[in-house]
Design goal:
mainly alpha; 2 domains
Length: 164
């Protein structure tokens, strides 16, 4: 029987699933699986490519990316989970594919919000969907320009004026 070779990226990085999970989500409530910051950094160095391939999607980044220097090298700081997408978009830190996907999703959410009567409800929905403020402004301005003007009331005819 031949020994099996490592068949995928996860096996080849040499990290356990628990270690990969911590690089993705951060330490669990019971504490880190790593004994030191140096161990954590070494794990990030070994597993970075795998972790980014698996979880750097949809405008979000793994916790290790935010806290072990990658974000800082771009001048970025953790905006919180709910604002990651718009923050990374506004700072040009997303791939072209991610931008296209998010733009389509955000446009759909913007259209949905536009159908709501209440201004506060529209804002709450756009906040929930994390639609960037720059897009809200651009799409709102475009909508105002495209709306057809209401036709002016017809001028009273001479007959109607004579009857009065």
């Amino acid at each position: 029987m031949r020994p099996r070779g490592k068949t995928d990226d996860i096996d080849s990085c040499g990290l356990t699933y628990s270690e990969l999970q911590e690089l993705w989500l951060g330490p669990c409530s019971g504490g880190s699986v790593f004994n030191s910051l140096e161990e954590l950094r070494a794990a990030w160095d070994r597993g970075r490519d795998v972790v980014m391939k698996l979880w750097a999607t949809n405008g979000r980044r793994p916790q290790a990316w935010w806290f072990l220097g990658d974000a800082a090298s771009l001048g970025l700081t953790w905006p919180g989970y709910d604002r990651q997408q718009s923050y990374l978009f506004e700072h040009n830190a997303l791939s072209e594919v991610e931008c296209e996907q998010l733009l389509a999703s955000w446009r759909q959410e913007f259209e949905h919000a536009s159908s709501l009567e209440d201004i506060a409800a529209r804002k709450a929905h756009l906040d929930w969907a994390d639609v960037p403020r720059s897009l809200r402004q651009r799409w709102s301005a475009n909508g105002r320009r495209r709306r057809p003007r209401q036709p002016a009331a017809p001028a009273p005819s001479e007959e109607a004026a004579a009857i009065k």
